[in-house]
Design brief:
alpha+beta, Tetrahydropterin Synthase, Chain A, 5 domains, 15 helices, 54% helix, transmembrane helix
């Protein structure tokens, strides 16, 4: 009888006992019936087990030995930090794992005295074929790939055993990992710099060949960005013209030079002043008026009396506290060096004579030659005044 049959028999016996107990209590069976019921509940399962054992019969030992499979001999060995090559020279993976194997019946071959070494060699050969094709930058990804590839039992080339690996760990040496990290940072920085350089080149090309090609293109570009500031754009035409000329290394066109702003304090040249600004009328100076007066009296620039009259008039102005005007008259009409007055005339340096007697007054000295002649002719020949 199997274990399931035994369990079922015990369960049914217990259930029948409970039912009979409930029935006896409800029907008020006599006291002598209860021991009989207990004997039946114990005897019935025992009889059932005995009958089942007789029907199965004993098994021969030979049959049991034929049905038993031979035990599988399993072995394991832990290896640590074995260097495996990568796709880059001098960058090796460090392989750690637990190698498991079991021997195979290989008739006609020599016995294997070190199956552990053969199993490790088989596992490392399988792992090396994978790692030597992978770059060392992602050891964790290669580790999971090896975990899948080495998880199945595979025979060695000689067929002596089957081997596998588990608990695989794949890392790089610490200094190799630092070098790879620095190389990755340099590549990233270089990529960023390349993008920035291309962006600047594109921007310069756009500005030089499109925006600042000429003043018209610059004005259109500026209006596209500030379409609500038309008046300001018109006012900045000179700046845009200068910017365009500087970008193209050329001079500002002649037609746009008048629009260019001038630096603070810079004055336009004489040509521009004559062309753009009307002449400013200046108020005539006193020396100009006096010179015009002398010209109206017939005293030209070659007349020797002009300096003398100017000197005498300047002395009169000094008496009226008009020193500035007097100095201006002397600066413009001062008698030249070596000027000598004629006989009978006072020197130009003083209003009186050299001997200290007062000379002629300025009004008398300013008389014209004709008035002097008429006065001389009106005097009597004998030198006596009129009326005597």
């Amino acid at each position: 009888m199997t274990t399931g049959c035994k369990t079922t028999t015990i369960f049914l016996t217990t259930l029948c006992g409970l039912l009979l107990t409930i029935l006896g209590l409800t029907q008020e069976w006599p006291t002598a019936a209860w021991p009989v019921l207990a004997v039946l509940l114990v005897a019935v399962p025992a009889v059932a087990f005995k009958v089942a054992a007789l029907r199965r019969g004993p098994l021969h030992v030979e049959v049991e030995e034929q049905r038993t499979d031979p035990p599988i001999e399993r072995r394991e060995l832990h290896i640590r930090r074995v260097a495996l090559p990568s796709n880059w020279a001098d960058y090796d993976f460090l392989f750690s794992a637990t190698v498991r194997w079991y021997p195979l019946d290989a008739p006609g071959t020599d016995p294997v005295l070190n199956p552990a070494g053969l199993a490790v060699e088989s596992v490392l050969d399988r792992a090396r074929r994978i790692t030597e094709q992978r770059e060392p930058g992602r050891p964790s990804l290669v580790q999971h790939e090896l975990s899948g590839a080495l998880s199945t039992l595979s025979p060695d080339p000689a067929g002596h055993l089957q081997a596998m690996a588990e608990d695989i760990t794949l890392v790089l040496r610490e200094h190799d990992q630092e070098r790879l990290t620095r190389l990755a940072n340099v590549r990233k920085d270089k990529a960023v710099w390349e993008h920035q350089r291309k962006y600047e080149q594109s921007k310069r090309q756009y500005l030089s060949e499109d925006v600042l090609k000429d003043t018209g293109s610059a004005v259109v570009w500026w209006l596209a960005k500030h379409d609500d500031h038309v008046e300001k754009t018109v006012a900045d035409l000179g700046l845009l013209a200068r910017l365009t000329s500087a970008a193209n290394d050329t001079d500002v066109p002649e037609r746009l030079r008048d629009l260019m702003p001038r630096p603070y304090g810079e004055q336009p040249d004489a040509y521009e002043t004559r062309e753009t600004a009307p002449p400013v009328e200046q108020e005539p100076m006193p020396a100009d008026l006096f010179e015009a007066f002398l010209a109206s009296m017939g005293m030209t620039e070659e007349d020797d009396r002009r300096p003398m009259v100017a000197k005498q008039f300047a002395d009169v102005l000094r008496t009226q506290d008009q020193d500035e005007i007097a100095e201006e008259l002397l600066a413009r009409l001062h008698p030249p060096t070596g000027f000598a007055p004629e006989a009978g005339e006072p020197p130009a340096s003083a209003p009186g004579t050299t001997d200290g007697t007062p000379g002629a007054s300025p009004s008398e000295s300013f008389r014209s030659p004709e008035s002097s002649k008429s006065s001389e002719s009106s005097e009597p020949l004998d030198g006596t005044p009129d009326g005597e």
